Amino acid sequence: MNQEKKPVGITETVLRDAHQSLIATRMTTEQMLPIVDKMDKIGYHSVECWGGATFDACLRFLKEDPWDRLRKLRDGFKNTKLQMLFRGQNILGYRHYADDVVEYFVQKSIANGIDIIRIFDCMNDIRNLQCAVNAAKKEGGHAQVALSYTIGDAYTLEYWTDLAKKVEDMGADSICVKDMAGLLLPYKATELITALKDTVSIPIQLHTHYTSGVASMTYLKAVEAGVDVIDTAMSPFALGTSQPATEVMVETFRGTPYDTGLSTQALAEIADYFRPLREEAIASGLLNPKVLGVDIQTLLYQVPGGMLSNMVSQLNEMHASDKYYDVLKEVPNVRKDLGEPPLVTPSSQIVGTQAMLNVVTGERYKSVTKETKAVLSGEYGQTAKPFNPEVQKKVIGDKEPITCRPADLIENELGRMEAEIAPWKQQDEDVLTYALFPQVAKEFFNYRQAQQTRVDPKVADTKNGAYPV
Ligand code: CO
User: Fold this and answer.
1) From the CA of 90, how far away is ligand 1's center (Å)?
2) How high is the pLDDT of residue 2?
3) Residue closest to 147 by CA, chosen among 170, 120, 168, 180
């Protein structure tokens, strides 16, 4: 047996995915900063701290500038690589953007402190990744491409190795297997990671969620099969719909060829810091103990945890909560009709909402969202399987679906956006904030202006009335 040392790297997710998964992304910058110095001394492979829902939640709920958060974290993390999650041509939003917006967003993310950009596409359509990968490399960043993991007829080992090969060929620096729903079972991980390691030579990272209860075992098998880095969360924000616990995985590999070398004592001090935040979140109801248990429905219905909670609240709003299980059963049908895409933002929302409409209206595709229409028109890219032709006909009629890279049909957008945002602009990055969440951004900019006016009467004199509401 090969006993050569092969320490596994740890990406810490407590500042991004962990609180996104457990407390609706509500951790504030103020709650993060006091522990940054200690975290910086741990020796993590990287700290994931930005992207995904953090950007939206900062603006919408916390009234914080996400760019400002990034700069503060960069100041504090002097030795540790900072990592973000990036939805390919969707950036951090829900639609396809023109290349000029994607490129500018990547440029500004790296300029403000991001080292590693994890780029994924909800269809695993390589064409939707290329622009962001090129931009990251041009700016001197590390371009990691994530394969959105899912199961289904189309998703054979061959599918994954083909995709991995294409990703390596397109110039990615590393690959992440992104298992957002916690579907990757331990022995399947052995097969998958072994096959990927045999196919590509760039490093491979694994990201999973504890939702279905198997994640620590999946990491164990993946590490034995040669995975280079795993994503974990400090124990107070681990397990449930979040990641396996950092301390547990570190101890698991101690004294083995995979020893991370991280200090459990130092990690314990960080856990001590986060524990009261967890207690606080439980007491306020922000952390619902329900999400901490094992959810076996995830394996039955292959639906990510976040999608389940969205469906519950949407059904409640429609006074149709008794239809929950009917909707759950409709999800795989809609997914098949739409070419069996992985369920990850934004495809998870598209499939979930359409399944709900199909059940609640009593007739399949009687009522369709514009996103369902867009998917069936090819506007989100190519799916692993063909669309259901009957459903496609019912939804888009005689319209010719597109087959090119969707962003090729989108004109550059930055110029127009710069003009629209001019009255509010205080920094270059504001146009990107506006590009992603126009309405929320305007509300935030107005709030920011009001705050500044309050603390600085001089600003009030000169700018009073200059900001449209
Ligand atoms: Co995740």
Assistant:
1) 17
2) 53
3) 120
Bridge partners, 206 (sequence order): 177, 230
Please tell me whether the overall predicted TM-score, pTM, comes out greater than 0.85 for this model.
yes
Indicate the SS3 state at residue 233.
strand
Cα torsion through 163, 164, 169, 173, rounded to 10: 140
Cis? peptide before 342, omega within 30° of 0: no
Q: Are 355 and 331 in contact (CB under 8 A)?
A: yes
Query: Of 469 and 102, which is predicted with more confidence?
Result: 102
Q: State residue 457's pLDDT score.
A: 52
Query: Which residues sit with Cβ closer than 5 angstroms to ligand 1, an ion?
Result: 17, 180
Measured in Å, residue 207 CA sits from the centre of ligand 1 at: 7
Q: Any residues with CB less than 8 A from the CB of 49 and at least 6 apart, and which?
A: 15, 16, 32, 70, 73, 82, 83, 84
Q: How far is the CA of 355 from the centre of ligand 1 (A)?
A: 23
Across 293-361, the runs of DSSP E, i.e. the strands, are none
The confidence band for 238, taking pLDDT boundaries of 50, 70 and 90, is very high
The number of residues in the chain equals 469
> How many angstroms is it from 51 CA to the middle of ligand 1?
11
157 CA → ligand 1 middle, Å: 22
Report how far ligand 1's centroid is from the alpha carbon of 272 (Å): 24
- CA 181 to ligand 1 center in whole angstroms: 8
Report CA(434)–ligand 1 centroid distance (Å). 25
CA of 350 to the centre of ligand 1 (A): 18
Give CA 144 to chain center in angstroms.
13
Instruction: Using the mean position of ligand 1's atoms as its centre, give its distance from the Cα of residue 17 in Å.
Output: 6
Q: What is the DSSP string of 187-213?
A: HHHHHHHHHHHHH--S-EEEEE-STTS
Specify the DSSP element, H or E, that contains 307: helix 305-317
**How far, in Å, is the centroid of ligand 1 from the Cα of 366?**
33
Got the DSSP string for 136-150?
HHHTT-EEEEEEE--
Per-residue exposure over 160-196, b if at least 16 CB sit within 10 Å of its own CB, e if not: bbebbeebbeeebbbbbbbbbbbbbbbebbbebbbbb
